[in-house]
Amino acid sequence: MSTLVLLLFTGLGLGALYFLVAAGLSLIYGLMGVLNFAHGAFLTLGAFAGWEIARRTGSDDWGTFLLSLLVGAAAGAAFAAFTEFVLIRRLYQRHIEQLLITVGLSLAAVALFDGIWGTDPVFIQGPAWFKDTTEILGARVPNDRFVCIVAAVLVLLAMVFFLKNTRYGMIIRAGVENRSMVTALGIDVRKAFTLVFTIGGAAAGLGGVLASHYFGYVSPMLGGSLLIFAFIVTVIGGLGSLTGAAIAAVAVAVLQQFANFYLGGTGDFVVVLALALVLLFRPSGLLGRTS
Amino acid sequence: MTTDTDAAGTNSTGSTSTGSSPGNPAGPRRTAAAGRSTAPARPRLTRRRIAGGAAGLAGLVLLVLLPLLNLSLPGVLPGPTYTPGSLQLLAMCMLMAAAALTYHLLLGVAGLLSFGHALYFGAGVYGLAIILQNLDIPLLPAMGLTLLVVIVLAHVVGSISLRVSGIPFAMVTLAFAQAGSVIVGRNPDGTTGGDEGLTLRTDNLPEFLVGVVNTRNLYWLALAVLVAVFIVVTWVQSSRAGHVAAAVRENELRVRVLGLQPYLVKLLIFVVSAVLVSIIGMVFLLLQSGAVPRAISADLTITLLVMVVLGGVGSRWGAVIGGVFYTILDQRLTTLANSDAIDALPDILRIPLSEPLFILGTLFILVVLFLPGGLTGTAQRLAQRRNRRVRDTGEGSTGHDGTGHDRTVMSREILEESA
């Protein structure tokens, strides 16, 4: 029982990270049709920015942690906004070329991170409470899992609130449904593009800081490895669906943890198998539109 | 599909376009251009083609003789052409060019943007390495066995991932390739060697393929592979299946209405491309005398994509040129990164310049932004502009107006269509 609970919470923590990356990916794809390969670079930049804060201030209390979260999200958002504004916007409506640009950007960015921070992982210290465990139903769950879960739930709630109750949120939702109609109504949908990129980048940057605490280190490859699973999550959840991304993130991560424990480290393989099954029986994903 | 530059090398299929459907905006214009130019230009075109064929043959002979010659290309090759170091680099260029050609078959012909091509390259590399390691059979049967594995693998993965198209197809192929990469990294029962990779076991290899002394044999093998792949790709592209694949790329619905089966044709192209790249992977294993995890990583697929886009999507020569250009640039930039001149620079210049991938990534972004059609497309556009200027001054005539522009338009369309 205790193993089960531990695996469940570890999976939920990992799912929270997947969700933070996949949410941005899914929204960007839904609205703009861009598959953003540079999303991993946003995450890595956020993680390094958070680590720099912890290193510069030299303290590992809660204040520093919250500050590093803020700075990480801001770094991710700034990088994403720059990407959209300078590179993606020029290739409006040319999806594959936009994709190629993000591929080139992720190559260049990861190489630059290599050059600045070195290829070796750097280890990171959080507040001491992270190292402690909390006992739930007999399982001793490390506290950093809860931080990831709470952060992801807050981000999900904030995003849902933003999409449902604000003007720009409505424009984005309408744009995902039918972009040409929104344009025809005289709304400049390009502002929404920059906005979606910025929000996605902020979520990824936040995810980067949390991932560095979850895994205990930062390396230039951090974003790339999470990005692959985020891709799988977005395909399983249905491209463009935020709720789908949340459900799929949790499902994929929990499945991965359980398979890793009970089926001899085959977690990644089982996830790809799940992807194949979803594609065979429901090619548009769990909550994707069937068109 | 083919244009004059393609014809300059070997076996061309003629200069009319095959993939343009009436619904395609460039179609009428291209036909018009062809119609205007064919009648007066035919004899000259034939002469051009003979000249081009002769030049290609001469180039091939030169490449075959290269290991016996003492030529130096300072700045491009590390030493004279007969030295093993230079031959190794040249052989690598050939293999990468051949791999880029197989990727061209996917992206340029069938319009399939796959992010999992490295899976089959890696299957060739690791499959052969593992078989040679564990079974006591000679090289050729081992290669045949590997090929069998790859054919099955390509059918399974292809038939699943082709259920979606466009960007989801890219994601799904990436996921499968990643699963392969993860398995190799996990090192099940010590078969793949994990991060360290596998060293090639040479017990059952023929004598002439082993050792630094025999690098030139490997060079000739790589050259033969490149020529063979080029011929096969040309053949597939000009076969009925190739034409249907190109038509699917342009307008899948139309092909289906005509009663053809886009799914099967795409699967065929997918499998052919996978098989070819796995053979290249096997020769890569012999050349590198070891299997490394990079050979099956997503980075390799991205490298192939970069090569094809750099050279110009939709052009066979573009893929070859892109492959050679990228490999040499990568090698040279790595040498540059470790040089003293770079070390002496201040941090803000030193850090970006000491990362070859940073420079290549930036270069790639610039090409996508400013040179649609890649290197070949740009070269043709320049040639065409010069031709027009010559014609305007009344000194010469033109036979092939619009080809450069068409190439640009076409590669953009290929990219558009697979979206």
Short description:
The complex is a heterodimer of chains A (291) and B (419). With 291 residues, chain A is mostly helical. Chain A is 75% helix and 4% strand.
Protein topology:
The complex is a heterodimer of chains A (291) and B (419).
Chain A: H1 2-32, H2 39-57, H3 62-88, H4 95-117, E1 122-123, E2 133-136, E3 139-142, H5 143-165, H6 167-177, H7 179-184, H8 189-215, E4 217-218, H9 222-237, H10 242-262, H11 267-281
Helix pairs in contact in A: 1-5, 1-6, 1-8, 1-9, 1-10, 2-3, 2-4, 2-8, 2-9, 3-8, 5-6, 5-8, 6-8, 9-10, 10-11
Chain B: H1 4-7, H2 26-65, H3 84-109, H4 118-134, H5 139-161, H6 167-186, E1 198-199, H7 215-238, H8 240-250, H9 252-257, H10 262-288, E2 290-291, H11 298-311, H12 316-337, H13 340-343, H14 347-353, H15 356-370, H16 374-392, H17 403-417
Antiparallel strand pairs in B: 1-2
Helix pairs in contact in B: 3-7, 3-10, 3-11, 3-12, 4-5, 4-6, 4-10, 5-10, 7-8, 7-10, 8-10, 11-12, 11-16, 12-15, 12-16, 16-17
